[in-house]
Amino acid sequence: MSYSTALPTHHQTHNPLTDAYHGKSAETRHLKPNELSTGTTIMAIAFSSGVVLCADSRVSTGTYIANRASDKISQLHDHIWCCRSGSAADTQALTDYVRHYLGQLAVETGRVPEVKVAAHLMRRLCYENKDNLMAGVIVGGWDPVEGGSVYNIPLGGACMSMPFAIGGSGSTYIYGLVDSEFKEGMTKEEAVALCKKAVSHAMSRDGSSGGIIRTCVVTGDGCEREYVSGNRLPYGPAGW
Amino acid sequence: MASSGSGYDLSSSTFSPDGRIFQIEYASKAVENAGTALGLRCRDGIVLCVEKPLVHKMLVSETTGRRIHTVDSHSGVAITGFVSDGRQIVGRARDEAANYLETYGTTIPPEVLTSRISSYVHYFTLHGALRPFGASTLVAAYDPGTKEHSLHMVEPSGVSYEYYGCSAGRGRQSARTEMEKLAINPKQGEGELIDVQEAVKQLAKIIYTLYDESKDKPFELEMSWLCEGSGWRHEGVPKDVIASAVEWAKKEIEEAEEEDDDEMEE
Question: pTM here?
Fold first, then answer.
């Protein structure tokens, strides 16, 4: 995995009023004017019989919060979901494409599509259009072959299978927390609790994450969607 | 044939008044006169077998004019009929398999591969400017997703079915009768189904039983398998395994003939 380092060049003189940098943080200054970003905290954990996906709900345009209760967890197929981060427009379009392809595949093969296939489709779209996209996606779900699984697809269009994954601007604040608290073979309850705890910590430190916590638990039996409202978060001052 | 001269047999885009498409029937005729191709689904894999007639005494027969082709690591096809038509089908099958892997990141399931080959073959029966394929295709494939193996056959008309055992070419009728005696159909048989080692021997026996040295051209046996033993990869059956199967088959046939002679004397 590599990161492109587009450093500002030395001859840039800053005019605080007209500058494109004005009022923008490092996370949001690459956005086009008026582009919505899900400056975000997202994560997913695979547990014994399925997977839990979790996300905050803030959508911002620079410093302005465009939506404080959005849903960044999207359904790709009956038992396959994904967490979106980056440009809201790009990730919505991507999930639409993957949902379409998965639907077609399910009809052609007559069986339940694998999470691996969903992740592969997402990766292909992300990789082949990497110059025009700003999307970091975590694909998670359940299939009869592998059970619960999580795939992380970061900015460049890599795709890796992981026991858990975190993403979005807020994820940088919780790497240590999740690394130390995660353990192999968690129960559903433990996984959900860790997700809520970690995401609430990220939301309290990351300016572009906040609002409520949304979760989606996927098992062979189906999906359960829940949320934790902003004044009941496990961590952080209430009412942000 | 009654259809000749009526004008309804000139194009596959025209039905005859009694609802037939003669060009497709003629294409099937081309397969019926070609070398016998057999496929058996066993307990632990699939065996494909083709009788390749040696059209010339100086032919380097091991490497040229192959009738069995690998499509991708987990699937292979046996072709009989117009060999060159068959190669066109193989090329398409390979494209479909590679394209599926590229798009979805997993191996193409057997039913999907077969249905895509079928669609391709069928397309050539629709257009006035095209000629149907004069070849039948036996598809052996393994599905890593479901961990199951299956055998399909695509005919010149574009129809395809899944089989426990199937045959095409000159000896298809008698071969089918012989295959029905083998333990390959889980719905009929009691006891265990045969394995690929046994199937190689039985297929060799069927081919040699049908062969009449005085009438038929000399031939070479081409065999491949896709089984547990090959790591579910489509591979040629080793030369020595084929040779000993053929030896066994010839002895079996000889013994059966001797018994028949004895009975006649009594």
Answer: 0.86
A110 CB neighbours in chain B (<8 A) are 111
Q: What's the domain range around A67? A: 37-228
- Residue A41 belongs to domain with CATH number: 3.60.20.10
**Total domains in the fold of chain B:** 1
Cβ atoms within 10 Å, residue B266:
4
Of the candidates A72, A70, A51, A39, the one whose C-alpha atom is nearest the C-alpha of residue A195 is A51
- B104 near A CB under 8 A: yes
CB of B169 less than 8 A from some CB of A: no
- Residue B147 in 3-state DSSP? coil
Which is nearest to B71 in space by CA: B105, B121, B110? Answer: B110
Q: What is the mean pLDDT of residues B209-234?
A: 93
Select which of A40, A91, A95, A219 is catalytic: A40
B3 within a domain of the structure (yes/no): no
Range of the domain at B143: 22-257
Domain annotation covers residue B170: yes
Please report, for the domain that includes residue B199, its CATH number.
3.60.20.10
Letter string b/e over residues B137-156, b meaning 16 or more CB atoms within 10 A of that residue's CB: bbbbbbbebeeebbbbbbbb
Q: How far apart are CA B239 and CA B190, in angstroms?
A: 32
**pLDDT tens digit sequence for B128-145:** 899 999 999 999 999 998
Band of the pLDDT at B172, cuts 50, 70, 90? Answer: very high
In a domain, B167, yes or no: yes
- pLDDT tens digit sequence for B46-77: 999 999 999 888 988 888 889 999 999 999 99
Lowest average pLDDT, out of A48-52, A59-63, B78-82, B202-206, goes to A59-63
Active-site residue, A40 included: yes
Inter-chain residue contact B106 with A114, CB threshold 8 Å: yes
